[in-house]
Design a protein that fits this description.
A: mainly beta, B: mainly beta
């Protein structure tokens, strides 16, 4: 069984740029959630995708957007990067019928905005 | 909005001893789920244990057990026979049954295991 993978591992961007982060779900999982984890903080829910549509969103501005593909992989896009966007971005996948508690996390992408 | 509070930023325990990590939460829901996640230095978050609010019996997974006090909105994690591999950040998380798909995480407790 393949686990959740994310790419890239690390990324450095300049303020105002755009970034795309990628996530591959665990085999058999059809739901993907994205989280932002600032240094010293717990993960903050950005949004969730199910059946290629956004299925819930946290308190993040519209410049955070996402996609889910037919193979259930997902992208997180952030436009007009700000210094406060520097964080670890975590992806978690789950199965719809067990979405209540079976979330499996990827290793994360460390984004640094300078 | 639901909030999860972990009041112990750092904890330490001697190898083979027992340690308890605290978590409280605030919610108006009666049906929800609670979790403890472990995040080792490699960063991959791992589910340690979960508790469904409608179950009165405390969850147990090998050396890990919880003390769930619904009325007090408290959900502590007990680690018995602590091992060096238990050293990590531990996050308490909440998910309501009726509040969509959002998980709410606490700020974490950094656990050090002393050999």
């Amino acid at each position: 069984e393949t686990g959740v993978t994310q790419s890239p591992t690390h990324l450095i961007k300049t303020r105002g740029q755009q970034v795309t982060l990628r996530c591959s779900s665990q085999s058999g999982h059809n739901t993907v959630s994205w989280y932002q984890q600032a240094l010293g903080q717990g993960p903050q829910f950005i949004f969730q995708y199910y059946r290629e549509e956004e299925n819930g969103r946290g308190n993040f501005p519209p410049r955070f957007s996402g996609l889910q593909f037919p193979n259930y992989s997902s992208e997180l896009n952030v436009n007009a990067l700000e210094l406060d966007d520097s964080a670890l971005y975590l992806c978690a996948s789950s199965r719809t019928d067990r979405a209540m508690y079976e979330q499996y996390f990827g290793p994360g992408t460390r984004l640094t905005v300078t | 909005a639901q909030t999860v509070t972990q009041s112990q930023p750092e904890m330490s325990v001697q190898e083979a001893e027992t340690v308890t990590l605290s978590c409280t939460y605030d919610t108006s829901e009666s049906d929800y789920y609670l979790f403890w996640y472990k995040q080792p230095p490699s960063r991959q978050m791992i589910l340690v244990i979960r508790q469904e609010a409608y179950k009165q019996q405390n969850a147990t997974e090998n050396r890990f057990s919880v003390n769930f006090q619904k009325a007090a909105k408290s959900f502590s994690l007990k680690i018995s026979d602590s091992q060096l591999g238990d050293a990590a950040m531990y996050f308490c998380a909440y998910k309501g049954r009726s509040t969509g798909n959002q998980f709410y995480f606490g700020t974490g407790t950094s656990l050090t295991v002393i050999p």
